[in-house]
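Practice problem: predict the structure.
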Amino acid sequence: MEFIEREDLLLSKHNVNNSKKNEQLDESRVDDRAKHLTTNQGLKMSEDEFSLKAGERGPTLMEDFHFREKMTHFDHERIPERVVHARGFSAHGEFELYKSLENYTKADFLNDTSKTTPVFVRFSTVAGSKGSAETVRDARGFATKFYTDEGNYDLVGNNIPVFFIQDAIKFPDLVHAVKPEPHNGMPQGASAHDTFWDFVANNQESAHMVMWTMSDRAIPRSFRMMEGFGVHTFRLVNAEGKSHFVKFHWKPVLGAHSLVWDEAQKISGKNPDFHRGDLYNSIEDGDFPEYELGIQVIAEADEDKFDFDILDPTKLWPEEDVPVEIVGKMTLNRNVDNVFAENEQVAFHPGHVVPGIDFSNDPLLQGRLFSYTDTQLIRLGGPNFHELPINKPVCPFHNNQRDGYGRHTINQGQVSYHNNSLANNTPETASPEEGGYEHYHEKVEGRKVRARSESFKDHFSQAALFWNSMSAHEKDHLIQAFSFELGKVESESVREQVVEMFSNVSLELAQGFAENIGVKPPVSGGSNTSKASPALSQANTNFKAETRQVAVVMGEGFNGEEVEKVLDGLADKGLKTSIISNKQGVLSGSDGVELKIDHTFTTADPVLFDAVYIIGGKSHDKAFTQSTEYYINEAFKHYKPIGATHQGVSFLEKGDVLNHEGVVAEDDAETFISTFTEAVEAHRHWNRSLV
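Answer:
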């Protein structure tokens, strides 16, 4: 009951906020009409079409300050893009805590269930530049900024729970290897090339992460349908100073679902903005993406009780061994107002923490604590990036820092140092009891060495665990992904090295892709790991029909009232329908029913939808028939649900797709709505024969 009331309260808040927002927009439009164009100094300008010249056909004059200001600003509008995670999109939202975690942490936003914490989330691809496509095979960034009353907390993670390397000193090498090769600048936003796979073969700690990036997890259906992970082991510290190790998880309420590879490649051409468009439109439509926050907790005393090192960033904690406890929910309910000011200027840093959250000795995390601040200094132009509106805390902040590029604060007084007497030693530090941050008092000792712990040297057991956990179709997708990626590698030596490397993970896997890439399949190898973790397979995620996109292929003369009833019924189930035909405008059916066309065959494509519903009509030409057959064939080979009623059934009969899993042909509206919704809810129908 409390959960339902919370949902109602959120909806009520949204409706009120939307109403206020609309009123503000209406007022702003009136205000905009009353505004005059000015320079950045506030000077009203009488002309903005022509530069100042010596005569109508003469040279432009240097004294044209308006031209200089406008052009100078334009010339300097671009900032350096992120080296990694350049291609991203963001949204605002809020986080609500289900239950207090005071036994684990003194972080206020994880203690007080009555508080709603504002958040800002940025999703991204890793390898590609700012202009690259979004549905490439890649890890995805999932970075969350919590604007808490104790300061900003950044949970900077990915949609994959492990990483390629164990020590941050190798991060430049990894990125250099996966980026376009320097001699020709290719390929863009892809790992299917020699240098990346040469890095993999010669840095075998990457085996586990490569299994994830070759899996369906690396081509998510949408940002709304992918998990998020903090990747590293962090610490939670409670008010008594007791510490627990923790890993953070974001679980999408809609479940974790993916594209198929052929579909992903086609979407890159049809709509390179597919993921950001999905996120933006969902929020605009009020279908707010939701993610539940989960934590895995290990007591300090249990640190060494596992068959892996819990500080190793190439290892996960199997959920069957360390259960994920769901503790709260994040709802993304507002789009950015300005992509540059928010999405591009936002600065995340794993070192932005609040009291009660601390770090472990994970060597990759330790390196990130330096790297992120250093990156923002060059990307955002100096040390004052925290004063940009998107990065600014909601709580007051006071210190003796001064000056620098982009300084917004105008500090008063003569004192800019600590300790002092001229300003009564202000601002004062805060004790832990007053909310002052105190690092966990961990005992640390040892010799200074450049070395890796022996407990970090097992590179294949969890890669094998991942393989063992996959369903049959997921294993097949892994083999095909390795085949595609390594098929693009020109070096035969590199291909051979990778086959040998992954024969240590699974002989079935290595033999499966070796033959496809012209390498002699290994005859020995395999792993002694027989354990599986069902939580790693997307076959065991949530399945929901809500917000799924359905292409409704329709022509003139459709069965009016029946079709209208079906479309209303699908909408009641939460499905989103778009009417597709061969021309824009309005379609006329029987019973005087008219329906507006949303897209034409030339402006939409079946790969952009989750399912296809064929209605047809009494009147259609050859071009309509060919386009409809194309929609059916594409949906069928991508294992998507296909439905048909009335005249549409004949298209399925002609295409020989009837009587296959996930294909629904039914004229009765109620039966069709129910059966087709169930088919859509399943996401894909992997048992369908494609022969």
